[in-house]
Structure formats: structure tokens, C-alpha cells
Amino acid sequence: MLALLCVLACPAAAPGSPAGAGPPVASRSPAVPAAAILPARPASVVADGVTDDATASNNQVKVIRDLSGALVVAYAANVEGVPQVILARSRDGGKEWTPVGQASSGAVPSRLPAIGVDSTGRLHVVWTRYDDGVGKIYYRAWQGSWAAPQERISPLPAYAGFPALAVDAAGQPHVVWYGIREAAVPPPTRHGAIYEIFYTGFDGLVWAPPQLISPGLPDSVNPSLAGDRTGRLHATWYQFDGHWYQVRYAQRGAVWEEPETVLATRFDAFNPDLAIGPRGQVVLAWEHHDGSSSVIQATRRISGRWDDAVDLSDGPSQARHPSVSVAPSGIVYVVWDSDDGQISVREFTSQWEPPIRLTGDGGNTYPSVAASPRGADVVWTHTAQGRSSVRYLRLGPGGTSPAARFSRRAAALGVAAALLAMMGLALLASRRRRRRRG
């Protein structure tokens, strides 16, 4: 009976990690438990009337906390019928939101924003603006007001899109994107694509000429970028190797180093995202495609080597668009959407916790997560009845869902208490029988 009580009242280790396990994503999970429903307060609405891809894409940071702790979100919204990049702020933990400013302008669409903040509190924003129908990368900075007009930082006339942003300790922005070199010749790849990954950085005076950082077949897409405390940049993207799309990774100290393939397989890997832990650990998540299935996988780079991949999602729904963030404590959060229209999250502390479903209605896509000492902040695009909005949810510190975890633990303790009561009643009845016999 005592063993049964322990089973009911004691938390169990998550699949793929023994109790008290060390580093995350160290081994492949044999199975993924079914997602629980988050019994927390409803998500708040950041903005209505947004585009149906307002928080795309997963390779970009969409939500940050500024120096005061206020939340700031970057998204795309329809302004007089034209998609524009908007910033919104919440000073009360995400309950109420007010627009901060409109980064983009003009009669052409602007989408796919990424946001960062420097040590002075200045906000940096990059996005894709479709000049003459062809994507270009634009940049702008905000510190109480816009510091300058929107500025194109990618060259004419070739396509550039899906920018990712990192801000270094000196407050200077660094940007990567995928684009096309002028007069590039389509290679014999699966799509005949000519996309490559480019990098530029600002030195306080000018933007550096764009640099190609994805050697090999020119079919490289959707880069993600992050910086660590030493100033080193880390980038990831997916690239065709002649047979499959593989996740690629590169880092930059003084110069960009040769990229490497992350856990090469005979399956396609799409849409990677990465984050840097407090001790410089690189945590990476992506879509693993096997036939018609799509599973979110994750790994971590330790001492120059990648751990075996771990499956974070499972089930009949196809999981896509992972976003990853690491708190100063080292807690890892990974969120993703599925083709059933819902958002899920998993957290690693000393083990991978079971997945938690964050949504339950409408169509929910393109989640973005930002971890902090206060927990994690999640935003995504919600669409129902032909209208879209940006939504926000706070996850508490030290647990993906304090409410869910408390509810599970309370239920277990309730059962244990009931069993103890039953044991007490049985013991009392036994004593009464003995007295009658005596």
C-alpha cells in the first residue's frame, strides 16, 4: 500500500530522461506522452485585425522583455488594407496591450518581423518589405520614438526575406536572411532553388556588405540567429545536400567558421530554431519529416558535439514551426503548432516534462517563446471565423504550467489521502472485530 501511495503522490520522470537526469536532449525519447490541457487563465489578446501570418516565422524572435520588464511584441497587422509591422507593449504582465509604433510604412506589404533589445533599452526591428513585389530586408530602431526612417539593408535588386536578428553586448544589431545573388544560376536541386544565407552587421556607422555564409548547394532557407555572452554569433538554417534537407549550423567569432551538418539523416529536416543557454550551450529544435509525418526534434551541442535527437511531439497531428528559448536558470522551453490548429509546449528542467497544450479553440499558428527569470512568454496567431488576432500566454517559472502541475499533484495527493482514510477505517474496523471476539 505504501508503494502505491508513493506511485500516486511522487512525481515521475519524463520519458527519455531518468529521474535527476543531467543535460537536456541527451537521449532519444522512446515515446511521447499525450498532451495535457493547460487549466490556466485564458490567453490575452495583443491585437486584433492582424494578418493570418502575423507572428510568422519560427526562425524569428517575436516577443521580448525590455529593461523595465515590460513585454514588447512585433507582428504584422493590416493598416488601411496593407500589412505593416507593428510593436505593442504590455506593462502589466500581458493583461492589457497598447500599440507602441508602426515600424514599416508605404503602400507595399511588410511582414515577418524580428525584434531585439540592447543594454540601453533600445528596440531593434527587422522585417521583409516587398518592394516591387520582391522581398527586401528593412531595419529600424526605437527608443521612445523612431531613431530614423525605415532603412533597407539588403542589396538591390535580388530577393531577400525571413530575417533573423541578434543584438550584441555593444548594442549593435546583426542580421541573417535567405536570398538570391544577382545573376545566380539555378542548380540541379529538388526545387531548382537559388537561395543562400547572407549576413550583415552594423558597426555603429554603417552596415557591412552582405556576406554569404552557406557554402554548398544554393538551396538554403530560413536562418535563425542568436548571440552568447562572449559576443559569439550562432546561426542555423536548413540546406539541401543533394538528397535531403539537413539542418546546418555555423558560428562567428571574428569571422564566420565553416558550417557543419547537425545530425545528418536520410530524412528531411526543416525550419530550425536555436537558443543559447547561460553557459553558452546551443539548444536547437526543428521539424523532422519522415514520409507524411512531421515531428519536432531537439538536440544540444556540448563540447563541440551534438547530442542524439529527442522527439518532443508525437501523435496523429503533424507538428511544425518550433520555437526554442532558454531561461537564465537553464530551463529550456520549446513550443510548436500542429495541423490540428493547436499550440503545445515542452519544458526541460532536470528532465523533459510532458507536453502541455496551450490552446483549445480556433486555428493557432506560428508560436514564439521567450524565456526569462519570470518563466516564459508565448505569443502566436489565432484565427477564427475569418479574423485573426495575436494572443499571449504567460508560463510560470520553474514549471511549464504551475496550475497544471499543481492540479496533477493535488489530484494525486487527494487519492493518497483517500487511500489513507480507507486504511484508517479498515484498521478501526479490525480493532472493533477483535474487541467483539474478546
Low-confidence stretches: 1-30, 398-418, 432-438
Q: Can you count the beta strands?
A: 30
Strand % is: 35-45%
Largest sheet: 5 strands, mixed
The best one-word shape is globular
Structural class: mainly beta
Physical arrangement of strands within the biggest beta sheet: 1-27-26-25-24
CATH class: Mainly Beta
Could you name the CATH topology? Neuraminidase
Number of domains: 1
Indicate the radius of gyration in whole angstroms. Answer: 24 Å
Distance between the termini: 29 Å
Fraction of helical residues: 10-25%
* Helix count from the secondary structure assignment: 2
Q: Any guess at the CATH architecture?
A: 6 Propeller
Explain this structure.
There is one protein chain. By secondary structure, the protein is mainly beta. The chain has a single domain (2-400), classed as Neuraminidase, CATH 2.120.10.10. The protein is built from 2 helices and 30 strands. Strands 1-27-26-25-24 form a 5-stranded mixed β-sheet, with no helix packed on it. Strands 19, 20, 21, 22 and 23 form a 5-stranded antiparallel β-sheet that branches. Strands 2-30-29-28 form a 4-stranded antiparallel β-sheet, with no helix packed on it. Strand 3 (63-65) and strand 4 form a beta hairpin. Helix 1 runs antiparallel to helix 2. The chain starts with a helix and ends with a helix.
